UniProtKB/TrEMBL annotation, chains A, B:
It comes from Streptomyces antioxidans. Keywords: DNA-binding, Transcription, Transcription regulation. One of its GO terms (molecular function) is DNA-binding transcription factor activity. Gene3D superfamilies: Homeodomain-like, Tetracycline Repressor, domain 2. GO terms for biological process: negative regulation of DNA-templated transcription. InterPro entries: Homeodomain-like_sf (IPR009057), HTH-type_TetR-like_transc_reg (IPR050109), HTH_TetR (IPR001647), Repressor_TetR_C (IPR004111), Tet_transcr_reg_TetR-rel_C_sf (IPR036271). This is TetR family transcriptional regulator. Residues 32-92 form the HTH tetR-type domain. Residues 17-27 have a biased composition (Basic and acidic residues). Residues 1-29 are annotated as: Disordered. Residues 55-74 bind DNA. The keyword Aminoacyl-tRNA synthetase does not apply.
Length: 266, 266
DNA sequence: ACCTGAACACCGTTCAAGT
DNA sequence: ACCTGAACACCGTTCAAGT
């Protein structure tokens, strides 16, 4: 109230604005940069230093170039991060039959397909969910960007389409589909987020997951309120952190699937 | 690789370090600031301007004080945000019997209790979940902070304890509890996150939720791949955005509960 | 067409100094 | 005990200029 208020930046999406660099005419690459190289370096830097450690100036240094060069290819930092976001979404391997109809509408770059193609909707759901989880963990910055931007890039569109296609095979009535999608993918999002953050924390501290886990349990163990919580933590079984996480993830998905199965005949 | 790499800041939690200001001796407030006032102003600013618009300098201006004064009460910006995070967690109203055992261990400031006290675990779960959702939407910055910090403040501890207490009444075996908790609360987290972001976007643009929704559908409607998606979007019913969101949320919770009910007798 | 350098308006935080 | 001012090392981005 006191000082002049700053309006929240409008932040139009990359996907809703003109490409900044017009498509190259011939094959002759000029010398230095290009879109692909910039996005790749961005992702490498994000993986290594995290979102907070990323800056346009750091990126330029990484590319061996002056701070402002990148701006010839990319309008703003936000747009660049949106490109990285969609590139990460492209790493999610999808069952091929779920993306065919989309691909027919135009070529899509990026997504990998798994060799084994499950037919049952439950297995397809498990595949898409665990692929999404895998990518969230591999790129711990992805979750924050998903919360920040619209996520309407080409790869995101393919992903959403695939998720929808799988859920439509569940037998759930149409008016329940969005709910079921929300339950499953918001769960995976949250789960992958904290799993990825924990993994990043371990890398930063130079500890294994199990080491950091026990250390955290130690600093917190003297709090009386955690007695009951610890009982449950211990009951969940698994000797390593990774095993516990896998069990939790798998069974949570089973719960969701069981819920869908039990409510689909109404 | 090129330039000297910056290590990721260690970032110790507020809750794991000494209080910066020793407790006041008598009643005589000095003149200016104090912890409560600072955190309250922080939350007000975060609500109004968003996380990206918040800075220590803005906060100081809001408090009518120089930029560095706040640092006498708070170690870093991170610590301050952690305090705001836990204060927000304290706004989640919990069924009173779920927090009694925690309160016995020591006084807890903040949490409100609802007058109606549901006995059935499903209703308790619905209450805790929708309260969590409500707070996430009211404070759109909360989700980002939950992803950033450890969330082990006193109010967070009470919340986790309550969530656990409710789930233990579900009849699920102990080794499934953490999974079920993850499914439900990660879902609510994700759902509340995007709902809150959408609401904030509306406020920033000066539009109602329905206006912005239709505008977004418009800019995106010309994409061929969205045909199938739109069919499902329309099927979910509800005339307003709020109704659609409420329906989606309610039924997704029903799915989770049905899954728990159906898997608890194994 | 592509890249640079200087400059602007911001950050979080340190540190010596005031009262 | 509390608050200030100047300073440091950073940001994202603009803009005029180079080739």
């Amino acid at each position: 109230m006191a000082t002049g208020s700053r309006t929240v930046r409008p932040r139009s999406s990359v996907w809703l604005s003109e490409r900044k660099t017009p498509r190259r005419k011939g094959d002759q690459q000029p010398v230095g940069l290009d879109h692909l190289k910039i996005v790749a370096a961005t992702m490498r830097l994000l993986d290594a230093e995290g979102l907070a450690g990323f800056s346009m100036r750091r990126l330029a240094a990484e590319l061996g170039v002056t701070a402002m060069s990148v701006y010839w290819y990319v309008e703003t930092k936000d747009h660049l991060l949106e490109l990285a976001l969609d590139a990460a979404m492209g790493e999610i391997a999808l069952p091929i039959e779920t993306v065919r109809s989309v691909e027919a509408a135009g070529p899509v770059e990026g997504p990998e397909y798994t060799p084994a193609e499950p037919r049952d909707w439950r297995d397809q759901l498990r595949q898409v969910a665990s692929e999404y989880r895998r990518v969230l963990v591999r790129h711990p910055w992805l979750a924050a960007l998903l919360g920040e931007y619209l996520n309407i890039g080409p790869n995101a569109v393919v992903f959403n389409h695939a998720a929808l296609a799988v859920m439509r095979n569940s037998g759930l009535p149409d008016d329940r589909i969005t709910s079921a999608l929300a339950l499953v993918y918001q769960f995976v999002y949250g789960f992958g987020t904290i799993e990825g953050r924990f993994a990043a924390r371990c890398r930063a501290a130079g500890l294994t997951q199990d080491e950091l886990y026990h250390e955290m349990m130690g600093t917190v163990a003297d709090r009386i309120e955690f007695d009951e919580a610890r009982k449950v933590m211990e009951a969940r079984g698994g000797t390593t952190v990774q095993e516990m996480q896998d069990r939790d993830f798998t069974f949570a998905l089973d719960l969701a699937i069981a819920g869908i199965e039990s409510l689909k005949e109404r």
